[in-house]
Design goal:
Elements lengths: L2 H9 L5 E6 L1 E10 L15 E11 H11 L3 E9 L2 H12 L7 E4 L6 E8 L2 E2 L4 E2 L7 H15 L4 E6 L8 H11 L6 E6 L10 E5 H8 L9 H15 L3 E4 L5 E4 L4 E4 L13 H14 L4 H15 L11 H10 L7
Parallel strand pairs: 1-4, 1-9, 2-6, 4-5, 9-10, 10-11, 11-12
Antiparallel strand pairs: 2-3, 6-7, 6-8, 12-13, 13-14
Helix pairs in contact: 1-10, 2-8, 4-5, 6-7, 8-9, 9-10
Length: about 350
């Protein structure tokens, strides 16, 4: 693909209708200083100082903000937040980006908004304190989410399914119910990223990294999973699930497998310090937007690879990729075959 071809494809993103269902979270970044010389008068314990706090959308929320950065203006979220300060901040961030939130439920009892706190000490991430990982959504509330999703699917081009946490939303039993709903909308393109229940999804392109692939197959991953290993294990995985598979391979690129074809794109030779947090979300969002806009798997793979290369160069943030940034990398690496 030329830069003009990519730009033309991106023009179609503005007319796409994309939904995202799953585990929405906040990423809370702040600077941490532990050697302050201050001691609490009440407890006698050392007092730590925090500064420069900032929140951004994480987990399924990061998929949404990647869609927005790509130029997808019509997006809906289906999920839950708590009745707390983090939930209110998440809703604020979604509204600021123009995301539709009528299907985002506020759970008032026994639900903490999912949060990854990410303190930075001397430019290194310190111990996280996570919220919401022990949430358990009652079946009645999940049924309400599915009712909203069913109404929405009639107007969607693409649905992205995100399962980040083991408990909150998408259990194996609930994925089976979701599969039945998805089967009733064959015109919708489904893309999934699921850490624990990926083997249960049907009718969707599933994105996995090599560690997740090994986990799903209950095998030990090699120290350096090469293309032969990824192809062999990806084929074994697909024999059990039947659906298309997108395997992210870090600096080695991305592999795509379905019934009709196998496509591979090599990673770009990036230099300098890299931050891979959120790169998988970028791949999912970019792949989904491209496929929804009519790109071939080979074209979608190449653009998703470029987008991920943009985000991994953004340090201490769950980065996104825009069309100008993608085109800049495309022009820089024109020796690669993206046709």
């Amino acid at each position: 693909m030329t830069g003009t071809n990519i730009a033309t494809l991106f023009q179609r993103f503005d007319s796409l209708n994309v939904g995202v269902i799953g585990d929405f979270a906040l990423d809370l970044y702040f600077k941490l200083r532990t050697s302050t010389g201050e001691c609490s008068l009440e407890t006698g314990l050392d007092v730590f100082w925090g500064s420069q706090a900032r929140a951004s959308l994480g987990a399924a929320g990061n998929v949404v903000q990647n869609l927005r950065a790509l130029g997808v203006t019509n997006s809906w979220v289906i999920g839950c937040v708590g009745d707390d300060l983090f939930g209110r901040e998440m809703q604020h961030l979604l509204r600021v980006q123009g995301v539709q939130i009528p299907y985002l439920q506020t759970v008032t009892e026994q639900w903490d908004t999912c949060v990854y706190t990410k303190p930075s000490q001397d430019r290194q991430e310190a111990n996280r304190i996570d919220f919401g990982t022990a949430n358990a959504l009652p079946d009645a509330l999940f049924d309400g989410l599915l009712t909203g999703l069913e109404q929405l699917l009639a107007d969607l081009d693409v649905l992205i399914i995100n399962q980040q946490f083991a408990n909150p939303l998408l259990t194996q039993k609930r994925v089976a119910v979701l599969n039945q709903l998805m089967a009733r909308f064959p015109k919708v393109r489904f893309v999934a990223d699921m850490r624990d229940v990926g083997m249960s999804i049907r009718g969707a392109t599933l994105k996995v990294n090599t560690a997740e692939l090994a986990k799903f197959l209950n095998i030990d991953p090699p120290a350096d999973p090469d293309l032969a290993w990824c192809t062999e294990q990806g084929t074994a995985f697909r024999k059990q699930t039947g659906g298309p598979l997108l395997i992210t391979r870090g600096h080695s690129g991305i592999l795509y497998l379905d019934d009709a074809e196998t496509q591979l794109i090599d990673g770009l030779p990036l230099r300098g310090e890299l931050d891979t947090v959120g790169a998988g979300d970028t791949v999912v969002a970019t792949w989904a937007a491209c496929i929804g806009a009519g790109a071939t798997p080979k074209q979608a793979l190449a653009i998703a690879n470029l987008a991920a290369a943009v985000t991994v160069q953004k340090l201490e943030q769950t980065g996104t990729a825009s069309l100008p940034e993608i085109l800049h990398l495309h022009d820089k690496y024109t020796s690669h075959d993206y046709r």
